[in-house]
Write a structure and sequence with these properties.
By secondary structure, the protein is an alpha+beta fold. The chain has eight helices and four strands; from the N terminus they run βαβαββαααααα.
């Protein structure tokens, strides 16, 4: 059986759990990281030398890095539903995974940590404001794409939706001033209607 290590309030873990739920995979979820510890143990470091989450073990394959895990699970188990067989269409979806990690993740983290995760006395308002400004500047790119198609991956949910789809829950649930992005909001509503998303992603922020 597939094993997934990681705490369920980690955005990187959420995308893996969401992918597994979308496919309908049976899996064992092992809480790790943060208050759960585990990641500094010799046993865990033998699986993931980075000491980070998530990590999976599946049929003798040990894999870390959340985007790589999503690609693997989708390619191996989704029967093409989440992972396009055509290289061109697949690349058009796949680019959103890299775009989210390279562009959106860091400023989003600066907002999330300073609004939600850190105690008030440790928050950096300037860092939060800078992150919010950067996210707001990036989202028109997403808005333009989603104005032309229902999902970042195209006409249906795919690998390209998972990274930003996890962040976007926090984006719309945080008490922040957000720019108006009707296509992004409609996409979030479509994601929120999915049982797998509600189970793995649409959780109280922590």
């Amino acid at each position: 059986m597939l094993r997934i290590w990681g705490r369920d309030n980690s955005n990187n873990v959420k995308k893996v759990l969401w992918c597994a739920e979308e496919i309908g995979l049976a899996y064992e979820h092992i809480p790790a990281g943060g208050a759960f510890g585990v990641v500094d143990s010799a046993e865990y470091r033998a699986l993931n030398p980075n000491g980070l989450v998530p990590t999976i073990e599946d049929d003798g394959i040990v894999l870390w890095e959340s985007n790589a895990i999503v690609r693997y699970l989708a390619a191996r188990y989704s029967d093409g539903a989440l992972y396009e067989s055509d290289p061109g269409r697949r690349a058009l979806a796949d680019r959103w995974m890299d775009w989210t990690t390279s562009n959106f993740a860091r400023p989003f983290r600066d907002v999330f940590w300073n609004v939600i995760r850190l105690p008030p006395e440790k928050r950096n308002e300037a860092e939060s404001a800078s992150g919010l400004k950067q996210c707001a500047a990036l989202l028109p790119i997403v808005e333009a794409a989603l104005s032309e198609q229902p999902f970042l991956s195209g006409e249906r949910l795919g690998i390209g939706d998972f990274p930003l789809g996890v962040f976007i829950h926090g984006w719309f649930q945080m008490p922040i001033d957000r720019p108006t992005t009707p296509a992004v909001e409609a996409w979030y509503e479509r994601l929120s209607a999915r049982p797998a998303y509600r189970k793995a992603v649409a959780l109280p922020l922590s």
